[in-house]
Design goal:
25 strands; alpha/beta; Rossmann fold; GMP Synthetase, Chain A, domain 3; 7-stranded mixed β-sheet; 16 helices; 9-stranded mixed β-sheet; 550 residues; 28% helix; single chain
C-alpha cells in the first residue's frame, strides 16, 4: 500500500463518505417523478419512478436485514435489466452488503463455482433462470435461501430449491422506514467476476468510493454524457460490469431509465426505443448487429435515438458508419474492462478535429479514444520499457486509477500489478493527442516472421464487405513464418462472395504481407457470455488447419 505525506494545513470541508445509497436518495429528492420503465419477464411493461424505486429498495433492505444479512455479506443476482434488479442494486449495497451480479450465460458449473467462491448468502433471480437455480442449488450449500423476483403466484408448485421465497412477498411484508447506514466509503459495494476464457473466473471487488468516482467520470460530456434530458436504455446487461455503470450514472443525473428485460431481439428493442423516446443507449456490437438488420429489412428509422456507446469488443467501422450516416446516431467508441469498473476511454472529437473531413473524423472515432480523468495509461514493450506515443508503434497496454483493481477477490492470481500498473492484456497504439487504439488482445495477436499482425484491422476490412455478416481472424501454424492469418467468415443471409473476391477486397486496405493466407466460410462464430467472439475456441477448432502452399 502507498503511504501519503500529511500536509501541515488540512482543508476545512465537510467529510461525507461517498456511498451508493446517496445516489438513490438524490434521485428520489431531486428527480423523484422521473420514470423507470421496464419490459418484464412476465411480458408486460412496468412503470414507476425514482421515488417509488427508493421506497421499494428500503423495503428490500429491511427484508434482507430480517433474513440476517450483515455488512460485507455477498448477495447474488441472476437477473435481466429491470426495476427489481435496480432495487437490489441499492438495497444490497446501500445496506452495506455486497451485490454480486452473476452472468447467467455462463455454464451452470461455472455459476456454482462463482457463487461458492464468493460465499453468497442469498440469491435473487428472475423467473427465466429457474432452470439454472434448480441445476446449481444442490451444489451451493452456503446459499441460505433463494428469492425469485416475482409475485407469490408465479412460484413453481414443485421444485428442489431450499428456502425459496417470492420477492414481492418480502416487499409487501416490510416497511420503507429504513435509514441507510453510514460507513467507510472504501467498503466493498459490488462484486463482478471476469468472463475469462481460460481458468476459473476471478472477482473484481468494487468499493463505494470507486463506484461513485466512476459514475461522476463516466457522466462527463466526453464520457457517456448522461443528463436529465436523456431517456437511457442500457442494452448492456446489469450482470455485465454493472451495465457499464448506467444504473448509477442515470440516477446521479436524473435520466429516465428504460430496461429491456430479456427481450433483446431487433424488433423488441426498436419498439421500446420508439415507444419510450430513447435518446441514448449502450451495448456490445453483436446486439446492434441484430437491431440494424431488423431495421434495414423493414426500412425503419429512429425518431429520437441520437447517441450510443459501443464497447465490449471493437466496433466494426462499417457498423459505425451505418449508425452515423444512415440513422443519424452519434457513436462513441469506448473501452474498458471488468477490472476497470469498466470505463477507461471514450472516442470523442477535439475542437481541432471538427475541421477534418468525414473520413478524418471517422478515423479518430474508430479509435478506442481518450482517457477519462482518473485513468492513466501507457504502452510498453515486452521488456517493460515505455513506448512513445506516435499512433503507429504498438505495445502492451497498462492502466492505473482509483476505479481500477489492485488485486482480485481473495487475492486470486497473486500480485497482478506491474510497478503499480494493471496489465490489461491488450495491445495498443497511442497517438500524440493521447487517443488509444486497440490493435489486438495479446493472446490473439498473430506473430508472423517475428512481426505482429493485428487481427482487428483484418476483421474490420472483412465486415465492411457487403456480403459479410461477421468475421474473425486467427493465427494458424506456418512452417516458414510460424503463424499466418486465417480469416473465418459468416456471410449475410442470401449473400454470396468467393474467397478470391474477398481477398481482392483487401487490396490497398492493409499491408500486402498482412493479407490472410486463406478464407473459410462458416455458419456461425462462437460467442462468449458477454457477446465476444471466442477466438480460443476457433484456434482449437482450426489448430490442425493446413494453409494452402504457394
Amino acid at each position: 500500500m502507498s503511504s501519503y505525506a500529511m500536509s501541515p494545513l488540512m482543508g476545512q470541508m465537510m467529510s461525507k463518505p461517498m456511498l451508493i445509497s446517496g445516489l438513490i436518495e438524490h434521485a428520489d429528492r431531486y428527480f423523484g417523478n422521473n420514470e423507470i420503465v421496464s419490459r418484464r419477464v412476465e411480458g408486460d411493461i412496468h412503470r414507476y419512478n425514482y421515488r417509488e424505486c427508493h421506497q421499494r429498495a428500503k423495503k428490500l433492505a429491511n427484508a434482507l436485514a430480517g433474513l440476517g444479512v450483515k455488512m460485507g455479506d455477498r448477495i447474488a443476482t441472476l437477473a435481466w435489466n429491470g426495476y427489481r434488479h435496480l432495487e437490489a442494486y441499492y438495497a444490497v449495497s446501500g445496506s452495506g452488503a455486497v451485490l454480486h451480479t452473476i452472468n447467467p450465460r455462463l455454464h451452470p458449473e461455472q455459476i456454482a463455482y462463482i457463487a461458492n467462491h464468493a460465499e453468497d448468502q442469498y440469491l435473487l433471480f428472475d423467473m427465466t433462470f429457474l432452470p439454472i437455480v434448480q441445476a446449481i442449488a444442490a451444489h451451493c450449500p452456503g446459499i441460505k435461501g433463494y428469492i425469485m423476483m416475482c409475485d407469490r403466484d408465479k412460484l413453481p408448485a414443485e421444485h428442489k430449491i431450499p428456502n425459496l421465497m417470492a420477492y414481492e412477498d418480502l416487499i409487501e411484508a416490510n416497511s420503507a422506514d429504513f435509514n441507510w447506514p453510514v460507513f467507510d466509503e472504501n467498503s466493498a459495494s459490488s462484486l463482478c467476476y471476469t468472463s475469462g476464457t481460460t481458468g476459473n473466473p476471478k472477482g473484481a471487488l468494487y468499493s463505494h468510493r470507486s463506484t461513485i468516482l466512476h459514475s461522476y467520470a463516466s457522466s462527463l460530456p466526453d464520457g457517456l454524457n448522461v443528463s436529465a434530458r436523456d431517456s437511457v436504455l442500457p442494452v448492456v446487461p446489469m450482470f455485465h460490469v454493472n451495465a457499464w455503470g448506467l444504473p448509477y450514472s442515470a440516477p446521479l443525473n436524473g435520466a429516465k431509465l428504460v430496461f429491456p428485460g430479456p427481450h433483446l431481439d431487433g424488433k423488441s428493442l426498436f419498439e421500446l426505443f420508439e415507444q419510450e423516446k430513447v435518446t441514448f443507449s449502450a451495448g456490445v456490437p453483436t446486439v446492434w448487429l441484430g437491431l440494424l438488420t431488423y431495421m434495414a429489412q423493414n426500412n425503419l428509422k429512429f425518431s429520437t435515438f441520437k447517441r450510443t456507446v459501443i464497447g465490449g469488443s471493437a466496433c466494426p467501422p462499417a457498423m459505425m458508419k451505418t449508425l452515423r450516416h444512415t440513422y443519424g446516431v452519434e457513436v462513441v467508441h469506448a473501452w474498458g474492462m471488468t477490472e476497470m469498473s469498466p470505463l477507461g476511454t471514450a472516442a470523442t472529437l477535439m475542437t481541432k478535429h471538427l475541421e477534418l473531413d468525414d473520413a478524418g473524423q471517422q478515423a479518430i472515432l474508430e479509435k478506442q479514444g481518450h482517457v477519462l480523468y482518473g485513468v492513466d495509461m501507457k504502452i510498453v514493450d515486452d521488456a517493460g520499457k515505455e513506448i512513445g506515443w506516435d499512433g503507429k508503434t504498438y505495445g502492451n497496454l497498462l492502466v492505473k486509477g482509483p476505479w481500477i483493481i489492485q488485486s482480485y477477490f481473495k487475492n486470486e492470481g497473486g500480485d497482478v500489478l506491474e510497478d503499480g500498473w494493471f496489465p490489461t492484456g491488450d495491445v495498443a497504439t497511442i497517438d500524440a493527442d493521447g487517443y488509444m487504439q486497440i490493435t489486438d488482445r495479446s493472446k490473439d495477436v498473430i506473430k508472423s516472421g517475428g512481426e505482429w499482425i493485428g487481427t482487428i484491422d483484418l476483421e474490420n476490412v472483412a465486415v465492411s464487405h457487403p456480403a459479410v455478416l461477421q468475421a474473425a481472424c486467427i493465427g494458424v501454424f506456418h512452417p516458414k513464418w510460424d503463424e499466418r492469418p486465417l480469416l473465418l467468415v459468416v456471410k449475410k443471409a442470401g449473400a454470396e462472395v468467393s474467397k478470391e473476391e474477398l481477398l481482392q477486397f483487401f487490396d490497398g486496405k492493409v499491408a500486402k504481407w498482412w493479407l490472410p493466407d486463406d478464407v473459410v466460410f462458416i455458419e456461425g462464430l462462437p460467442l462468449g457470455a458477454t457477446g465476444k467472439i471466442l477466438k480460443n475456441k476457433l484456434r482449437e477448432q482450426f489448430k490442425d488447419y493446413k494453409l494452402p502452399t504457394a
